[in-house]
Amino acid sequence: MPDTTVPSGTGTSTIRILLADDHALVRRGVRLILDQEPDLEVVAEAGDGAEAIELARTHDVDLAVLDIAMPRMTGLQAARELAALKPALRILMLTMHDNEQYFFQALKAGASGYVLKSVADRDLVAACRAAMRDEPFLYPGAVTALIRNYLHRARHGEETPDQILTPREEEVLKLVAEGHSSKEIADLLFISVKTVQRHRANLLQKLGLRDRLELTRYAIRAGLIEP
Q1: Any idea of the CA torsion for 142, 148, 149, 155, to the nearest 10 degrees?
Q2: Does the pTM exceed 0.85?
Q3: Judging by beta carbons within 10 Å of its beta carbon (0-12, 13-18, 19+), is residue 221 exposed, middle or buried?
Q4: Which of 82, 91, 101, 202 has its CA at a distance of 20 to 30 angstroms from the CA of residue 110?
Q5: For 137-151, how does the pLDDT look when each residue is reduced to its tens digit (9 = 90+)?
Q6: Which residues form the Response regulatory domain (predicted)?
Q7: Helix boundaries (H) for 24-160
Q8: Residue 20 φ then ψ, to 5°
């Protein structure tokens, strides 16, 4: 049963929520779930991670609910930016994918929880309240994934992609994989074309890859873009 209690320490005050998803219909459905609760209110909506960051600068929000796979800037990238911009802001990741790669990257990005869209009507309200109590919210099966992934990496000494790449390199990788030109990437990130080309060369060298196609495949495996 979902947790229906108001988070301790918040009294009767409303939890102000920033909702980011690139699909308007999904935002509408999630908003209906949240706004019917007396202690939850969506006060801002964004269509991608970059817009979510801008809205967080101009709105008083307590909690950000971010879709993981969005254009321009993923929810994972936005989560890292938001955690640095507003350390007190709680963050939940929302996704249609029961994917361990996404799950672990979400935790590392500073998210308090990970909610599957398929069961959002059951889990999302409880996850919001848990986040505001400073408690983690893990979807069913996440604990098993946590243990399995930890044991696998411990045995094989593997590094995760976000330990290999810098945040800026990850941004460039995502945009390259989405098909943007060096000029377009430079404009989006407010850097020079030469800097983009340097980042791209560094990516190929670091990852041992040869071209854009291989970068795109890597970006899919790393959870930066959807296949």
Answers
A1: 170
A2: no
A3: exposed
A4: 202
A5: 877 666 666 677 667
A6: 16-132
A7: 24-35, 49-58, 75-85, 100-108, 120-132, 142-156
A8: -125, 120
